Amino acid sequence: MELLYVGLAALGAGLAVLGAGVGVGKIGGSAMDAIARQPEASGKIQTAMIIAAALVEGVALFGVVASLLGVLR
Amino acid sequence: MTAHKSLVIRVYFTLALAILPLFTYAQEHNEEHSSIEEAEKEFNATEMIMHHIGDAHEWHFFGEGESSVTLPLPVILYTENGLVSFMSSEFHHDTTGHTVVEKDGMRFVNLHEDIYMLEEGAEAVEFDAEHHPVNASKPWDLSITKNVAAMFLTVILMILFFSVGLARHHKKSKQAPKGFNNVLETLVLFVRDEIAIPQIGEKKYMKFMPFLLTVFFFIWITNLMGLLPGAANVTGNIAVTVSLGLFTMLIMIFNGNKDFYKHTFWMPGIPTWVKPILAIVEGLGLLIKPAALMIRLFANITAGHIIILSLIGLIFILENAGIAGVSVPFALFITVLELLVAFLQAFIFTILSALFIGMAVEEHEHH
């Protein structure tokens, strides 16, 4: 039973990372495109990119915290 | 800087100092209470990691058991009979509940960094089947723990850097500062020009600069100090990040203008039956925004520490010195990455705080 909980927690952490990877990847890719089109706006794009990435990452970290609570119950 | 503004900074500082320590030890420990029996000699990675990222009543540097080198910190407890205080060294580095400290007729034990008060007449702590103590209860713990001591250190550094260093320079001369003060000024201007002005706007940003500067430098300096060997994991403690998130929430709520509350609770320009639904969603948003800030900082820093400790722990789990060749360079890489994360998280916390405050004080054009 103990192993099941730990396994589920590990699976949850993995899924959270998967989602965040896709999300941050898309944000980074789009930011690259935008900078390539308009290099003079790169500063503003970077700030917006970091904010969006942080929001996505925050959701992934909810998953990590939930998994952590699962392991440490 | 006018007298009024420096007063505001002092008020924020005092508030932070007064409120933060109250919360740091309020968190529950998730680890299980093991019995008083002989501690396992086998290496337990979870225990090691939790010991490193958790708060403690003494500042542990190195060594194990009786021979540990630690800095004793004061334990302050609020019991039914008033305040009790003694140095944590009286527990002799014991966190299993063996050592009983007697003060003013009350007996205390340290059980996995939770201080328990034994009931009257009890000589030693007893456990039930689930290893919860049966004859002891937790008093209010207001101790200067490792995290609180580390926070005091950060606050002293910040006062030295800014009040004694940079502010005094600007009082004396109009020239640009040299050396370290110049670095600090660049960072202060970065917070103003990249965070405060774009998010809050030219007109109103000055009112929030003291808060934004304080959280930015507080988080950054504690993050960096947390990376030193033997240092406390302050921003990886949920109680600290809750306090920081609470500041953002209160500032957002108290500075919100009429438009902000109208858009939150009675959104104009949509069908009436949608308005109550949106009011619930937006109302919850008031809570969720600072809660997300809090979880982000806590989880990022804690995750970073756990990764580094796990990589080092791998050597002991596999009991093979050859693993060190892989895990030590990798741990070094993650540590360097954490240097970046330390800055990035301070930046993100500050910019999102500024964004939320900016949303609350924004002037809407009426259509």
UniProtKB/TrEMBL annotation, chain A:
UniProt-listed SUPFAM superfamilies: F1F0 ATP synthase subunit C
Sorted UniProt keywords: ATP synthesis, Cell inner membrane, Cell membrane, CF(0), Hydrogen ion transport, Hydrolase, Ion transport, Lipid-binding, Membrane, Transmembrane, Transmembrane helix, Transport
Pfam families: ATP-synt_C (PF00137)
GO cellular component terms listed in the entry, alphabetical order: plasma membrane; proton-transporting ATP synthase complex; proton-transporting two-sector ATPase complex, proton-transporting domain
Protein's cellular compartments: Cell inner membrane; Membrane
PROSITE patterns xref list: ATPASE_C (PS00605)
UniProt xrefs under Gene3D superfamilies: F1F0 ATP synthase subunit C
Primary location: membrane
Sequence ranges assigned to domain V-ATPase proteolipid subunit C-like in this UniProt record: 9-69
Residues marked Reversibly protonated during proton transport (site): E57
GO molecular function: hydrolase activity; lipid binding; proton-transporting ATP synthase activity, rotational mechanism
Membrane topology: Multi-pass membrane protein
Membrane spanning stretches: 49-72
InterPro entries assigned to the protein according to its UniProt record, in alphabetical order: ATP_synth_csu_bac/chlpt (IPR005953), ATP_synth_F0_csu (IPR000454), ATP_synth_F0_csu_DDCD_BS (IPR020537), ATP_synth_F0_csu_sf (IPR038662), ATPase_proteolipid_c-like_dom (IPR002379), F/V-ATP_Csub_sf (IPR035921)
Record text on subunit structure and interactions: F-type ATPases have 2 components, F(1) - the catalytic core - and F(0) - the membrane proton channel. F(1) has five subunits: alpha(3), beta(3), gamma(1), delta(1), epsilon(1). F(0) has three main subunits: a(1), b(2) and c(10-14). The alpha and beta chains form an alternating ring which encloses part of the gamma chain. F(1) is attached to F(0) by a central stalk formed by the gamma and epsilon chains, while a peripheral stalk is formed by the delta and b chains.
Recorded family membership: Belongs to the ATPase C chain family.
Biological role stated in the UniProt entry: Key component of the F(0) channel; it plays a direct role in translocation across the membrane. A homomeric c-ring of between 10-14 subunits forms the central stalk rotor element with the F(1) delta and epsilon subunits. F(1)F(0) ATP synthase produces ATP from ADP in the presence of a proton or sodium gradient. F-type ATPases consist of two structural domains, F(1) containing the extramembraneous catalytic core and F(0) containing the membrane proton channel, linked together by a central stalk and a peripheral stalk. During catalysis, ATP synthesis in the catalytic domain of F(1) is coupled via a rotary mechanism of the central stalk subunits to proton translocation.
Protein name (Swiss-Prot/TrEMBL): ATP synthase subunit c
Species: Christiangramia forsetii (strain DSM 17595 / CGMCC 1.15422 / KT0803)
Name of the gene encoding the protein in the UniProt record: atpE
